[in-house]
Amino acid sequence: MEPFGEGENAIKNHAANDDKDALKPTDDAEQPIYEWEEEGFWEEEDEDEEERERQAEKRRKWIRRTLAGLLAVMLFGNLIAFLPQIYSLPAIRFLQKNNELSQKEQIRQYKQAVVGVNTDGSKGTGFNIDETGLIITNQHVIDRMQVGTVSFLRGDIYAADVVFSDPAIDTAILKIRGDHDDLPTLELETESQWQAGDSVYVVGNPLSFYQIANEGVILGLTSLTGWDLPVMMIDAPIYKGNSGSPVINGNGKVIAVVFATSKIEREEESINVGLAVPVEHMREYIEEQF
């Protein structure tokens, strides 16, 4: 008889061997198939990921298009609100007239001497009367400023000092700094031969435009409250920015300077007219600058 201890060990070893044999797969045993081992599992995962990416890209595109559309609507709304201020029917008409008049050589010559006058926050028109640079404009254009800039059609921009200013006739004279002897000029009329019904040209910088030429007709003189001297009325398209524009007669000479607009009754109708200071009112002050 074998000892008890050895027999017990033999039984244990036999049981252990049986357990090992039980864990060994047999050829006939059905092996488990895990999800990630199934055919096409990784392909499906890739396809799902691609689909999610496509959907995400579609959402991003939709957001971008929506934001772009909202921005376009806002800009368009602002544009619609702003355009009537510039491209109103009267403005379109004076632009058409400017294009027509600008075909004439004499009008193109006038424009060479008409300048933009800019001071701190103010914009208006002026014109040069001397080759060294002597600019006529309105007093309210330069206001209380003593220095401004003037810009010519050809692109030259100069600093200019105010050498004369009189609110009583709304006139100011600026002297361009530096030495110049070839600046384009307009000539002042020396004789007061104009009369109601005469045709005139007005060249200026109305609204947001520059170097706009238009034509009009002299209506006559009128008196203004607070003014000692009468001013000229002209039937012509005058807008903000025309202040300081020269009124030019058929001989190509300046007879007045635009400074304001007013309304008058004519043939039972209220019409806008331009007001201009005749050059006779400022001639003595101009002569002092030479």
Write out key terms for the chains shown.
single chain, 290 residues, alpha+beta, 6-stranded antiparallel beta barrel, 6-stranded antiparallel β-barrel, elongated, disordered N terminus
Please give a quick description of this structure.
The chain has six helices and 13 strands.
Topology, please?
Layout: H1 4-23, H2 41-86, H3 89-101, H4 105-113, E1 114-119, E2 122-128, E3 134-137, H5 139-142, E4 147-151, E5 157-166, E6 171-176, E7 187-188, E8 199-204, E9 212-222, E10 231-235, E11 246-248, E12 253-266, E13 269-278, H6 283-287
Parallel strand pairs: 7-12
Antiparallel strand pairs: 1-2, 1-4, 2-3, 3-6, 4-5, 5-6, 8-9, 8-11, 9-10, 10-13, 11-12, 12-13
Description:
With 290 residues, this protein is α+β, with helices and mostly antiparallel strands. 33% of the residues lie in helices and 31% in strands. It has helices at 4-23, 41-86, 89-101, 105-113, 139-142, 283-287; strands at 114-119, 122-128, 134-137, 147-151, 157-166, 171-176, 187-188, 199-204, 212-222, 231-235, 246-248, 253-266, 269-278. It has a 6-stranded antiparallel β-barrel. It has a 6-stranded antiparallel beta barrel with strand order 8-9-10-13-12-11. It starts with a helix and ends with a helix.
